[in-house]
Amino acid sequence: MTEINPKDPRDPAAYERPSVAVDLVLMSIVDAAPAVLVMRRADPPFAGQWALPGGFVRIDESLDEAARRILRDKARMDGAYVEQLYTFGALGRDPRTRVITTAYLALLSADSFAAALRAAPALKLAKVLTAWTGEAGGPAGVAIEGAAAPLAFDHADILGTAMLRLRGKLDYSNVAFALLPEAFTLRELQDIYEAVLGVTLNKPAFRRRMLDKGWLEATGARESGASFRPAELFRRAINPRQ
Amino acid sequence: MTEINPKDPRDPAAYERPSVAVDLVLMSIVDAAPAVLVMRRADPPFAGQWALPGGFVRIDESLDEAARRILRDKARMDGAYVEQLYTFGALGRDPRTRVITTAYLALLSADSFAAALRAAPALKLAKVLTAWTGEAGGPAGVAIEGAAAPLAFDHADILGTAMLRLRGKLDYSNVAFALLPEAFTLRELQDIYEAVLGVTLNKPAFRRRMLDKGWLEATGARESGASFRPAELFRRAINPRQ
DNA sequence: GCAATAGTGTCTGTCAGACAATATAGG
DNA sequence: CCTATATTGTCTGACAGACACTATTGC
């Protein structure tokens, strides 16, 4: 279908084209630890291994649309927080043929995460294994049902990049809210920060800092069910002042 | 050459493939203002308009290699600081055919910038026009020889993304050094920060902060040629403590 | 000595960490 | 009242901004 004419470097049709895919890093914080949704590969290459959900980009959809479609089809999910992460274009990353993949990062609340696991049986929860070795970043492994499992392709690199991005954005943006349900307590918000950053934070200071940012709005409601003083529930402010 | 078989969603060959390109944002700070190198397009689409240097990714090179090759071929430059910026995959961004482009950001010193302009006559210096409208970001225009000029394709979006990335990384990384020559004064370093952030900074505080970070190393040498007290020259520390 | 910029000292307000004290739900 | 956690108050040290002061070069 495509005639290769290597004579004209300005003509897009003069180049053999790579396949372009989108892979999703569906992350949440479960039991105070980062977790990601993976699927077991049925076919070669890497048959039997775990991989991030993904798919090829169609010729009539944008990259963002492809990410949304795969989120919908493979995780039965709509309306999550999604942002482009990085594009992986090394030569040997897919042994079949040349595949360039643009990874997207989606952040889900623990509730949405559980809902996706119920709605899409092919998905499996994997805990992210991160050696917090300084700023290096590097690839991140996963553990499934307690046992370390290798990831297919370069998906460990993708996951490592996702963890770095998430850590980096916590400080200066409000992505943390994407990992929480509509209403949440300050303790739950702090748990998110501590799980992602891998540190323990000072409670009064954290409280002050968050309230001063103006990102939060009191709902007036309180937690229920605990046998001690219930915490106040907050939500994301409608008009956050920057 | 490629047989389309839409029946098997797992087969890369089952999808019509987009063209994949790489575009470079070659940035520097010239006369205390952000500047970028552009080329005038000779052929349609957007013939006569200005565009970022770029090219199609070959089937036997990685994305990073393609960026380096284009840097070498179009800007006659080697060894600059280069990082991947973002991948632009909207549907109509190239009127000829489906082209997905991965943009790379390269940071150059004013000296390297001038050298590239001399070595590659097709390149032209363009001043970046940024309306510092809050955090929005948005597209950024350019001015060439004092007159505003439209950019081809979605290159204004790419440039806007580059400016945002540069601004964001100044605070927590040492990218500023990539915009300076080997040896530089603290005033020159501060000029970089002020030009990129669009603010004026306090001199003693800036000095303290930079020296405390441990990224700098005194060379022992001093500026020369000025008719006033010469400033001490620093270089990037070999073993920066984080 | 003069001009112009480099570099330093000091005060002050802001803010995060530490830690203690108080508040409040269920039992 | 007791337990466990939420929420608040206060002290303190680190640090950035402001601003004045001293240092040094060419002329």
CATH homologous superfamily label of the largest domain in chain A? Nucleoside Triphosphate Pyrophosphohydrolase
CATH architecture of the largest domain in chain A: Alpha-Beta Complex
Q: What is the molecular shape of chain A?
A: elongated
> What is the name of the CATH class of the largest domain in chain A?
Alpha Beta
What is the string of SSEs of chain A from the N terminus onward? EEEEHEEHEEEHHHEE
- Report the structural category of chain A: alpha+beta
Per DSSP, the total helix count of chain A is 5
Largest interface: A-B, 45 and 45 residues
The quaternary state of the protein chains shown equals homodimer
Keywords:
242 residues; alpha+beta; two-stranded antiparallel sheet; elongated; DNA-binding; 26% helix; nine-stranded mixed sheet; Nucleoside Triphosphate Pyrophosphohydrolase; homodimer; 5 helices; Arc Repressor Mutant, subunit A
Describe this structure as you would to a colleague.
Chain A is α+β, with helices and mostly antiparallel strands and 242 residues long. The first copy, chain A, folds into two domains: 159 residues, Nucleoside Triphosphate Pyrophosphohydrolase (Alpha-Beta Complex), CATH 3.90.79.10; 57 residues, Winged helix-like DNA-binding domain superfamily/Winged helix DNA-binding domain (Arc Repressor Mutant, subunit A, Orthogonal Bundle). Helix content of chain A is 26%, strand content 28%. In chain A, strands 1, 2, 3, 4, 5, 6, 7, 8 and 9 form a nine-stranded mixed beta sheet that branches. Chain A has a two-stranded antiparallel sheet with strand order 10-11. In chain A, a hairpin with a 2-residue loop joins strand 8 and strand 9. The longest helix of chain A has 18 residues. Chain A is elongated. The model of chain A has no long low-confidence stretch (mean pLDDT 90). Chains A and B meet through strand 1, helix 1, strand 5 and strand 6 of A and strand 1, helix 1, strand 5 and strand 6 of B. Chain A binds a DNA duplex (27 and 27 nucleotides) through helix 5.
